[in-house]
Every structure is written in structure tokens, then in C-alpha cells.
Write a structure and sequence with these properties.
The complex is a heterodimer of chains A (111) and B (158).
Chain A: H1 6-24, H2 29-42, H3 44-55, H4 61-108
Helix pairs in contact in A: 1-2, 3-4
Chain B: H1 3-23, H2 34-52, H3 62-80, H4 86-95, H5 103-115, H6 120-143, H7 151-157
Helix pairs in contact in B: 2-3, 2-6, 3-4, 4-6
The chains are: A mainly alpha (111), B mainly alpha (158).
């Protein structure tokens, strides 16, 4: 198995993300930096595995890129899913409110 | 309860209901759709089976690739026409785009075609990514409100 220093690679990635945030998002550096680091942490395990597979030539460079790109899409999908769940919670609240109105009226008026 | 109290309570409720009905009755997200859920889980199995075969020559599986791509495009089209379903549609578009060559699944199939065979570790790792994508879509669908469950439907249909 090829020897790689993943810890060093990961630290370098953290540093690059912080720099990227500083250079591209001047007004939102702190938020962007925090979000970027969180994102990186969430894919740490996968990245470590893929980096090792790449070093062992069990993945090609284009495979590695495909995997990383798919992870980017999955992160976006996770955000969309959260937005969807929030919308569902609002809908549930609306339903409960309707039910409350209906139940209260039915309770007050003997039918 | 005194008649005046009943009147006051009813008045408040009618005001609240009227405000509510006129103000925010459009809905934010589609209700649960059994067909969409079944298609999502069935397509997950089909795509994962196809990725298993990607360690073999693409030319041997052209027909299967075309069939699965076509099914994915069909669900994309179906989602496009579901009202209030923008979020799920955007999630599907992350899996495959209209050309069939973009998105998590589309890019993989295109790459398989270009390289003829995929390495076993790649197929294995990619299956995990694809499964995660399908699971997110299915989970969101199951959380959507079942329209038949609600008393509201009964109330509104009266």
C-alpha cells in the first residue's frame, strides 16, 4: 500500500479553504470559512479513503474527480432536503392550525 | 357557555380562518406521491445494478444504460410537472440532467462510455455516492404530508 500523509493533506486543504474564503468573499470571510471547514470535515472520511485509493492506483485521477464532484452535488442535495423539510414543517403547522379551527368550531356548535 | 361568548369565540375563529385561507393557502411543497416514491426506490436499485456492471465493457451494456437513462429522464419529466415540487426537481437534477450526461449518475455513465470499463474500487465507492443521493430524495418524499391523512382535506372538500 502506498504511504500517504493524509493528515498533512487535510491540513493543507483547511489552509487553502481559509485562503479561498479570504480572497473571494471579503465581506463574508468568517461565515464562508466556517461553512467551508464544516463541509470539509463532513467529507473527511471519504476523502481519506479516496486519496488512499488514488495513491494505490485503484482509482484514476478522473475517478477521483468524479467522486469529489459527486460529493459536491450530494452536499447541495442535503441543503435542498433541509429546505424541503423546513417547508414540510410549515405545512404541518398550517394543517394543525386548520384542524384546531375545525375541531373548535365543531366543539362549539352541536351538529 | 353564554351565547355572547360563543358568538365572540366563533367570530375570532372565522377571522383567523379567513385570514389564514386568504393569506397562505397556496402551500409551500408538494404532498406525498406514492408513484414518485416507488419510482425513486426502483430506480435506485436499477442504477446500482448498472454500476455493478460497469467493471465490464460498456459495449456489452449499451441497451441497459439506455433503458435506465430513459427511466431517469421520465421521472425527471414527471417531477417537472408536479405542482410545488421545485425542491425535489432540483434534487433530481443533481442526479441526472436533461442531456443524460450531467449529474451524479449521468457523469458516471458518460465516463463509463468513454473509458469502456471502470475499476472495481471506483464502482464500489461510486455506488455509495449514488445510493446516498437516491436516499435523500426518497426520505424527503416520505416526510411530505399525506394529503389523504388530513382532516383539512375533508373540511375543504365539504
Amino acid at each position: 500500500m502506498a504511504q500517504i500523509n493524509f493528515a498533512e493533506i487535510f491540513e493543507k486543504l483547511k489552509e487553502d479553504i481559509a485562503n479561498l474564503a479570504s480572497s473571494t468573499l471579503k465581506n463574508y470571510v468568517n461565515d464562508a470559512k466556517t461553512d467551508g471547514l464544516k463541509m470539509l470535515e463532513s467529507m473527511k472520511e471519504k476523502l481519506q479513503k479516496w486519496t488512499q485509493l488514488l495513491a494505490d492506483q485503484k482509482l484514476t485521477t478522473s475517478d477521483f474527480e468524479l467522486l469529489v464532484n459527486s460529493q459536491k452535488d450530494l452536499i447541495e442535495m442535503a441543503c435542498l432536503k433541509q429546505a424541503g423539510l423546513a417547508a414540510i414543517r410549515v405545512e404541518q403547522f398550517k394543517s394543525s392550525l386548520f384542524n384546531l379551527v375545525v375541531d373548535t368550531i365543531f366543539h362549539l356548535i352541536p351538529l | 357557555m353564554k351565547p355572547v361568548l360563543i358568538k365572540r369565540s366563533l367570530f375570532s375563529l372565522v377571522i383567523a380562518a379567513a385570514f389564514f385561507l386568504t393569506g397562505c393557502n397556496k402551500g409551500l411543497i408538494a404532498t406525498y406521491d406514492q408513484y414518485a416514491y416507488t419510482q425513486t426506490t426502483a430506480l435506485k436499485v436499477d442504477v446500482l445494478n448498472l454500476i455493478d456492471k460497469s467493471t465490464e465493457s460498456y459495449s456489452k451494456h449499451v441497451t441497459e444504460v439506455e433503458a435506465v437513462t430513459s427511466d431517469l429522464k421520465k421521472i425527471l419529466e414527471y417531477e417537472k410537472h408536479r405542482p410545488l415540487d421545485g425542491i425535489t426537481l432540483r434534487m433530481w437534477q443533481k442526479m441526472i440532467d436533461e442531456t443524460g450526461e450531467g449529474g451524479i449518475v449521468g457523469r458516471y455513465l458518460k465516463d463509463w462510455k468513454e473509458h469502456d470499463k471502470k475499476l472495481p474500487d471506483m464502482a464500489n465507492e461510486y455506488k455509495g455516492q449514488v445510493a446516498e443521493g437516491f436516499d435523500m430524495i426518497a426520505e424527503l418524499e416520505t416526510k411530505k404530508i399525506k394529503s389523504s391523512d388530513s382532516k383539512v382535506q375533508t373540511f375543504l372538500n365539504k
